[in-house]
Amino acid sequence: MARKTGSHSDITGPRVQQAALRLFARHGYAAVSMRQIAAEVGVQAGALYNYTPDKQSLLFDLMRGHMEDLMAERAARGGQGGPLARLEEFTRFHIAFHLERPDAVFVSYMELRNLEPKNFAVIEGLRRGYENELQGILEDGVAEGVFAVADPKVATLAVIAMLTGVTTWYRREGRLSPAEVGTLYWDMVRKAVAA
Amino acid sequence: MARKTGSHSDITGPRVQQAALRLFARHGYAAVSMRQIAAEVGVQAGALYNYTPDKQSLLFDLMRGHMEDLMAERAARGGQGGPLARLEEFTRFHIAFHLERPDAVFVSYMELRNLEPKNFAVIEGLRRGYENELQGILEDGVAEGVFAVADPKVATLAVIAMLTGVTTWYRREGRLSPAEVGTLYWDMVRKAVAA
DNA sequence: AGAGTATCTGAACGCGTGTTCAGTTCAATC
DNA sequence: GATTGAACTGAACACGCGTTCAGATACTCT
User: Fold this and answer.
1) Closest-CA residue in chain A for B106?
2) Cα–Cα nearest to B12, from B54, B40, B31
3) Which residues of chain B does A193 touch, with a Cβ-Cβ cutoff of 8 Å?
């Protein structure tokens, strides 16, 4: 019988995750202490252990959650249309998705080396799946003659690096909207792989 | 009167830097202790302080050295020829330079947030200078009508992100030589900004 | 041989770490 | 109104941190 009112766990739990994400993104996993996270939430350090078995799980759960969101949203949009249309959709989606969650993106790309090997393998597997979708689009395009890329694997990694790089400079208060950024990048991606 | 033989400082000093670079690249600045660095060199932790005033300076000196190397090598190769030739030279140089120093690159891009504000400003200034060279090439190309980029600033950051991303997947033992990688990327860069 | 000094050791300093846990608080239930 | 149990505190644990420094070591120079 879970209590409905007066129970804080369904409030504190997410707040722990939020605080951890924020702090990990700003200072890095290794540089953030459990006491800092607790202070941000407004509890003592010991209370965090009602919501995570340990610090490593806090990091892993954040990264797995981010990657699963990514894959789920990707699966929701079907790969419809020809390679060019699919590539445009992928490009704009990637930009929009990443600009919406700068902290999660930052943590997921920077803290891979702080994952225990087993956890690392899980995240790496999810990422590989995401990359494979782009690679499939490029390969289809090459087969149909609409794309010309000498090495689809390298092109995949190059395009993803370029797109993800947007998170390092984009600022909400800046002169460009996410959609405008998407258009700028789509223009470059399209030309880069064009036949 | 510096002693020539028997003096270890000119051996230990560089070894400290090497060890710090290796460990920072693999585990991150915050996760590496002075005792770990000392163990890698084969001395006690206290001995490190003959070669650096503190841990922060160790990081800063590594990053500054890397950026200064980058700028020096860039200055050595003049910006000769038209925008297309200069862009090709820049692209191939960037790939080759970065593939030669994976550890320094990794540290310089990942540990910016662990720099004290003053040190951060120095490194950021150097990087800005490097980016400006690429931006200048793109702007010249646009002026001459050989490039078509809607936003030179964004294009600069996009190209650099794409090129630097090569360090995340390239392995010396892999199927591609640095020169081959350079050619693959140049093909994509050239098309991405072409008029 | 003796003096001088660059180099390093080993112990210590105060402090922060992740984690555990007995005990307190307090709203929901009976 | 008594009981229950989830949520949390506050103190403690063993340990590692960056840094300092008096003293040992090992070498060069006179």
Assistant:
1) A110
2) B40
3) 188, 191
